[in-house]
Please model this.
Amino acid sequence: MAWILVTPALLILAYLFQAWSKKKFERRLPPGPKSIPVLGHLHLIGKNPHQDMQKLAEEHGPVMYLRFGFVRNIIVSSPQAAKQFLKNYDLNFVNRPPHEAAKYISYDQRNLSFGSYGPYWRNMRKLCTLELLSSTKINSFKSMRKEEIRFLVDRIENAAREHDTVDLSDLVGSLSADVSCRMIFGKKYEDNEIDERGFKVVIQEGMQLAALPNLGNFFPYLSLLDLQGLTKRMKAVAKVYDKFLQKILDEHDVLKEPGQTKDFVDTMLDIMKSGVAEFEFDRTHIKAVLLDMLAAGVDTAATTVDWTMAELLRNPQVMRKVQNELAQVVGMDRMVDESDLTSLEYLDMVIKEVFRLHPVAPLLIPHRSIEDCEIDGFFIPKNSTVMVNIYAIGRDPKVWTDAEKFVPERFVGSHIDLLGRDFELIPFGSGRRGCPGIQLGLIMVRLVVAQLVHCFDWTLPDGMKPSEIDMSEEFGLVVTRASHLKANPSCRLQLN
Model:
């Protein structure tokens, strides 16, 4: 009953803070909609925040101010503004805001995604980039990726022979989980080895908890009361993760056979035991980074493949053009190899167009200002949360012709790439906080899509029309399709 007495006092405190904050900053802040006491602008945000913020930005501009409880937010919705925050003033916005889910699940934000900027984060990112995500390390797992993708193709080929409908979302999700586990942990894990609910379910629960509107993030003093019950759930998930990761570390405390490829866990344990790391680096830090890589690897690539296949099924003429390119570049007597990917120009345009319309992290991960600054004549206070709405940028008619249409040909002769240099299209972020796994992610997406389209023709089940495919979104840390994608395969290649 204590929370009944405490909550009114906290709400009064919130109101007084907001009145003081408004008086101090309102004349210099970016424009925004009218707020209400205590909540600020929270009442304007629904189940798809990126879409709601896009609509608000259309009225209030590409640099917009929203207040969520105690938290001042700057919403960035144009390429020019994104360049200011992520390149020109990158160092001032390189930090991350406090985050309740990352606090409990990611070992007090010791991971790369949500970690505070400083010597530890800089050194850990350098270590991961050089030791875990380098071209040499990624290439060392090439044969493993080929093997796992062949397993996928074999399953679909069997379904084609039986004239069965396949759940593409489920199959691609399982492939992504298996590839990630083998790279990171050295082997695949059965669903029940992490928890009775299943491997992917528990990983996705953590991702959902990280994205749910949490009063503790907006009203820090309310986090102790856990009014939504989220903290209890976070602690439960964190306990499951920690038990699983501890088991993995214990399994790796044995010598590898000579010549055996070292996975990410082996590499990190070797660095920890050698003592060469010039910063605090123990098992807790290893667990935080491993969990970071697992969450990123399992969901992001699979979700992008899912969106891509949905768009190809909705646009059969685009599917045929991809298949024609594959027939010309690869031929019809073998599967696609990773070495073919650089020659598949039209496929690359298709992937770009999917990232434009369906970025898996439409608001990226929020940034936080370190000091007061001024951008485009607007005052940006210290400790403001900055969200870059790449969903809005990707659908801005001022940037893209026919912005709502799926037209890969728009990239013919275009200089725009996905590496964070062109702010019209930054699905992996940009600057110091850009995703370090971009190379691996693009290889997986391009290879899986190429294989699915080259090996099989696809039709929709039960007479469904392409226009009837459900393209609604399920918001989370990764924005997935709300319903699974199902289709009927038929073989194009003679694989056996």
About this structure: The chain has 17 helices and eleven strands. Confidence is low (pLDDT under 50) at residues 1-7. The CA atoms of residues 12 and 38 lie 8 Å apart. The first helix runs from residue 2 to 25.
